[in-house]
UniProtKB/TrEMBL annotation:
UniProt source species: Cyclobacterium qasimii M12-11B
Pfam families linked to this entry: Response_reg (PF00072)
EC id: 2.7.3.-
Cited PROSITE patterns: RESPONSE_REGULATORY (PS50110)
Annotated keywords: Kinase, Phosphoprotein, Transferase, Two-component regulatory system
Record's protein name: Sensor for ctr capsule biosynthesis, probable histidine kinase acting on RcsB
Domain Response regulatory: residue ranges: 6-124
Modified positions (4-aspartylphosphate) in chain numbering: D55
SMART domains for this protein: REC
Gene3D superfamilies, per database record: 3.40.50.2300
Length: 126
């Protein structure tokens, strides 16, 4: 069996992090969590991930700014990692807005964990 797929979760809510970890562990995904976009960029310098779940509204660096920074990385693999927004849609973004920012998909909060899992699998195994 292949190594566990690695998911990076950028989310400032500990409750959502813990619930997401429980859901992803059912499919044997390995999950690392950070609290803001700057930590995402710092971690991507050192580690590889198969997918990023990106909260949009975070302190220090929000998910849109972070996604644009990931898309501009010089590493051709890391710059194309699938990124899924998780958001309460607090600024009324559309899917088109997310696509323009470089996001591959989005999931609305409150999270539907069946949808979360199916969306993660859709992007990791495509």
């Amino acid at each position: 069996m292949s190594d566990a797929k690695k998911v990076l979760v950028a989310e400032d809510s500990s409750v959502i992090i813990n619930l997401t970890r429980n859901v992803l562990s059912f499919e044997n995904f390995s999950m690392t969590a950070v609290k803001n976009g700057k930590q995402v960029l710092d971690l991507l310098e050192k580690e590889d991930f198969d997918l990023i779940l990106m909260d949009i509204n975070m302190p220090v660096m929000d998910g849109i700014v972070c996604t644009k920074a990931v898309r501009n990385l010089s590493d051709p693999v890391k710059s194309k990692i699938p990124i899924i927004a998780i958001t309460g849609n607090y600024k009324n973004f559309t899917l088109d807005d997310f696509k323009k920012a470089g996001l591959d998909d989005y999931i609305q909060k409150p999270l539907d964990y069946d949808l979360l899992l199916s969306t993660v699998k859709k992007h990791i195994y495509k």
